[in-house]
Amino acid sequence: MSYEQEKQVAIEAALTAAKLCEQVRQEQVTEAMEKSDKSPVTVADLGSQAVICRALAMAFPDDLVVGEEDASQLRQPEMADQLNRVSHYVKSVVGDATPDQVLDWIDRGNSQIGGRYWTLDPIDGTKGFLRQDQYAVALALVELGEVKLGVLVCPALPVSPDQPDGEKGVLFVAVRGQGATMVPISGGEPQPIQVTKADSQEAMRFVESVESGHGDHSRQDAVAKAVGITTPSLRMDSQAKYGAVASGRASLYLRLPSPKSPDYREKIWDHAAGTIVVEEAGGRVTDMYGKALNFSLGAKLSDNQGVIVSNGVIHDTVLDALRETASV
Ligand SMILES: Nc1ncnc2c1ncn2[C@@H]1O[C@H](COP(=O)(O)O)[C@@H](OP(=O)(O)O)[C@H]1O
Ligand SMILES: [Mg+2]
C-alpha cells in the first residue's frame, strides 16, 4: 500500500492543528488546566485533538483514533468558558464548529487500539509548549502493530540547525518503505533525510528531555560518556528529539526511566510517529534492553522500558554500555 491518501490527510490535519497551537501561543493564553494525573493540558491540546480527529473522521470514518486527550473535563458546566475558547480556536482554523461538535471530535480520539488505528499526541511536550520551547504535533498510523505512517510537526524547531535564531517550523513525514522527509512548515519541496552515519566523536551529540522527571539524566550522561560522547546533551522537549536524530542533528536520543517513576510505561502517542521517522531515515529504535517497541498492546508500551533512538551505527554499543552502567 502506498498510504498516499492517509499521508495527505495526516499532513494537512497536523499542519492545521499546529497553526491553532501557534495562534494560542502567540495570543499568550497558554495557562494550563490540570488533568487527573496532574499533568498540564491547555486549550491548544484540546483544540488540536479536535481538529485532527475531525479530519480523520471525514476521510476515514471507520478508523480508530487513540489520542492523548479526552473531553470529560471540558464537558463539566463550570468549564463552559474553556470550552468556548477551545471552540473559538477550532473555528478559526476549520470554519464553523459548535461546542458540541468540538466535544465529540475530541472524544473520537478515545478508542482502544485495534488492527488498524491512528495514535495522536495533539501537543507532545505540553510543558515545552507552556515554556515557549519545543513541542510537536504527532500523528501515526499503526497496522497490526507496525507503524506505517508518521507525521511530526515541530513548529519551534529551527529549519537550519546552524541558524538557531533563523526560520522555525519543520514537518517530518515517513511512510514505511518510502523513506523519511523534512520540509519547512512554510512550504517547499520535502527533502529526504538520513541519520548521521559517522560514528566519530564530532558527529556524536545526544538529545534528551528537558524535564528531569521524564528520564534519568545522570545515567543518560554516564551512558553517553561510555559510548564516547563528550559534548553536553542537547535538551529538547517532545518528539522533536526524534526529528533531530532522523535529520542528523544528533546521533542518539536517550530516555531511561526516571528514578522518580521507575515503573513508568511510555505512551504509544509519545513514540509512534517519531519511531517511523527515525527508522525510515536509517536509524534504529528499541527499548533499553534492545527490544522493539510493541505498539499492539494498548495505549501504553507495557512490554518496554526506556527508549533508545540512534543512528543505528552506535546502537549495540549503547545497549552494551547500558548493561554495564546497570551493574555498577
Ligand atoms: N515519568 C515519566 N517518564 C517518561 N515520560 C513521561 C513521564 N511522565 C510523563 N511523560 C511523558 O513525557 C512526554 C513529554 O516528553 P518530553 O519530556 O520528551 O518532552 C509527555 O507528553 P505530553 O507533553 O504530550 O503530555 C508525557 O506523556
Ligand atoms: Mg506526549
Automatic annotation (TrEMBL):
Keywords associated with the record: Hydrolase, Magnesium, Metal-binding
GO BP term, example: sulfate assimilation
Species whose genome carries this gene: Coleofasciculus chthonoplastes PCC 7420
Gene Ontology terms for molecular function: 3'(2'),5'-bisphosphate nucleotidase activity; inositol monophosphate phosphatase activity; metal ion binding
Catalytic activity annotation: adenosine 3',5'-bisphosphate + H2O = AMP + phosphate; a myo-inositol phosphate + H2O = myo-inositol + phosphate; adenosine 2',5'-bisphosphate + H2O = AMP + phosphate; 3'-phosphoadenylyl sulfate + H2O = adenosine 5'-phosphosulfate + phosphate
Protein family according to the UniProt entry: Belongs to the inositol monophosphatase superfamily.
Domain of life: Bacteria
Protein name, entry field: 3'(2'),5'-bisphosphate nucleotidase
UniProt EC number: 3.1.3.7
Alphabetical list of PANTHER family matching this protein: 3'(2'),5'-BISPHOSPHATE NUCLEOTIDASE, PHOSPHATASE
Gene3D superfamilies, A to Z: 3.40.190.80, Fructose-1,6-Bisphosphatase, subunit A, domain 1
